[in-house]
Specification:
Pfam families: NPH3. By secondary structure, the chain is mainly α. Helix 2 runs antiparallel to helix 3. The protein starts with 20 loop residues before the first helix and ends in an 11-residue tail after the last helix.
Length: 563
């Protein structure tokens, strides 16, 4: 540059776009004049770039700056993952020359190869330790785990590193841990909605834009959707909440909703309490009920698809163990029903939540999902208390979502005295309590009627009253009830035989001797028992679903007395 200058007496030249700026040029100049410089993780990438820019290569001198930096890279950077990540982070300020001389791609490929080797070695060591540590217990992540260092990278570099790691076959669990650490670090402080906090270095719009970019990128890097996916539900929920507040794309939010729906039985109430995106709107609801409605719908649809796939296999199985505990499917839907009822009780306090949305939420799950509906009754009672201006017709419509036959005795007692409920429901609750009391007083053979009574559906689209949720469980329940009925009929036949014997012996006694008043009274009592038994036997008839609807649907007119 000096030789090509037009002025032979030039004493100052300008170097543009020197990698590392004045610091990089100073190190290169010191190296030229024999001043000892120390190559470190923080400057090796800069020295590689500045030596390329100034053409300080072996073609002009042996052991030049470029070769010295290359030796350091090969010996101390590329073999170790943590060192590679640190140098890769330094390359972010050295673009595009760091890309041109192939430093970035070399480091990323080195990280992927070393991580793959580490995973293989770790797997072999676990095999040796199975005699001491059970295989189903995952060891804690070490404090110096290299995955935590990836949080210092920019989003673009992180995507490239994870893409290389996936290509090398890194486990999805490890990918998920990396994403969780990165999200916690990158989104920390960006979720603040307090205007005093937002007044810092970013405006509200800039914060939301950065949130949106990070959330959409992380969701795109998540493992494929499946029931066996190991992404924690709390992490997915946090991403969805941030994505809604940051106005993420519809595709991004739909992806998160489906992932949560596939693992909804693992969620807790906090995971589904998603704040509504209500900017400067005081008439919005507190929570985003539309999103929750879609999530529960996804869960129900997936459950129905699984049941349909297994239906033919279950029908061909004839022998079952009826005394086994709840199946995983049944336990799953029971957890989800409790979760939904807890959510209803929470959102019921929102004065801006309209009745139609509350009813739609209450009816998201099929009838057989709730074995006991005390929690649903509690949520409805909270809603009526928080919305005292609800019309009587709307109260009636709301209470129709409750199957009174599935209320416990305590809930029935509370409902019978609850002034917020419509009169139709109070009458129905009192009638059911009367039937339960009558069956409890009669005992014995009336258990047969109690088992039939417990299966009356309240709504026309209700499932079996046994609470089964799959063809296998439903079939097992029917078989169990059938055996109980057969035993009850056998007891009744034995009792009938005994009464017939008593009747014959009484007739013979009358023939042999003159009957006394005591004998006549005894004979009369025996005949009454016999007639009662025949009357009970004749009353056992099939009961159609239409008759059950007639007995248990809400009455349109108030009744002044109960018979």
């Amino acid at each position: 540059m000096l030789s090509e200058a037009s002025d032979s007496k030039v004493s100052r030249i300008t170097l543009t776009n020197v990698p590392g700026g004045s610091e990089g040029f100073e190190l290169a100049a010191k190296f030229c004049y024999g001043v000892s410089i120390e190559i470190t993780l923080s400057n090796v990438a800069m020295l590689k770039c500045v030596s390329h820019y100034l053409e300080m290569v072996e073609d002009f001198a042996e052991k030049n700056l470029d070769s010295q930096a290359e030796i350091y890279m090969k010996n101390l950077v590329l073999p170790k993952i943590s060192n590679s990540i640190s140098v890769l982070h330094c390359c972010e300020s050295l673009l595009p020359i760091a890309e041109e001389i192939n430093i970035v791609s070399r480091i990323i490929n080195g990280i992927a190869c070393n991580a793959s080797k580490e995973q293989l070695v770790s797997g072999l060591s676990k095999l040796e330790k199975f005699a001491v540590i059970p295989p189903n217990i995952e060891p804690d992540t070490p404090p110096d785990w290299w995955g935590k260092s990836l949080t210092m990278l920019s989003l673009d570099f992180l995507q490239r590193v994870l893409s290389a790691l996936k290509t090398k076959g890194l486990k999805q669990d490890t990918i998920t841990k990396i994403l969780i650490n990165y999200a916690q670090k990158s989104l920390h402080g960006l979720v603040a909605r307090d205007p005093q906090i937002i007044k810092g270095s970013f405006s509200d719009a800039e914060l939301r834009k950065k949130q949106k970019v990070i959330v959409e990128a992380i969701v795109g890097l998540l493992p494929n959707q499946s029931r066996k996916c190991s992404v924690p539900i709390s992490f997915l929920s946090g991403l969805l909440k941030t994505g809604i507040l940051a106005s993420a794309s519809i595709v991004c939010k739909a992806d998160l909703e489906r992932r949560i729906g596939l693992h909804l039985d693992e969620a807790i109430l906090e995971d589904i309490l998603i704040p509504a995106n209500s900017h400067n709107n005081n008439h919005h609801t507190l929570y985003d009920t539309d999103t929750i409605s879609r999530i529960f719908t996804i869960y129900v649809n997936v459950e129905e698809e699984d049941n349909d796939e297994n239906h033919m296999t279950i029908e061909n199985e004839m022998d079952y163990d009826f005394d086994i505990p709840l199946s995983p499917k049944q336990g799953s839907i029971l957890k989800v029903s409790k979760l939904l009822d807890s959510y209803l009780a929470e959102v019921a306090l929102d004065s801006n939540l309209i009745l139609s949305k509350f009813i739609a939420l209450a009816e998201l799950l099929p009838d057989h999902a709730r074995v006991v509906e005390d929690n649903l009754y509690r949520a409805i009672d909270i809603y009526l208390k928080a919305h005292p201006n609800v019309k009587d017709s709307e109260r009636y419509r709301l209470c129709k979502t409750i199957d009174c036959q599935k209320l416990s005795q305590e809930a029935c007692s509370h409902a019978a005295q609850n002034e917020r409920l419509p009169m139709q429901m109070a009458v129905q609750v009192l009638y059911i309590e009367q039937m339960r009391l009558r069956n409890a007083m009669n005992g014995g053979h009336n258990q047969f009627f109690g088992s039939i009574h417990g299966q009356f559906p309240q709504r026309s689209n209700s499932a079996a009253g046994s609470g089964a949720i799959s063809p296998r469980d439903n079939y097992a329940s029917v078989r169990r009830e059938n055996r109980e009925l057969k035993l009850e009929v056998a007891r009744m036949r034995m009792r009938l035989t005994e009464l017939e014997k008593d009747h014959v012996s009484m007739k013979q006694e009358l023939v042999r001797s003159n009957p006394t008043n005591t004998l006549l009274r005894s004979f009369t009592k025996k005949l009454k028992k016999l007639n009662t038994l025949f009357h009970v036997k004749d009353d056992i008839k099939p009961i159609s679903s239409s008759s059950s609807d007639t007995w248990f649907l809400f009455q349109k007119k108030r009744r002044h007395s109960l018979s």
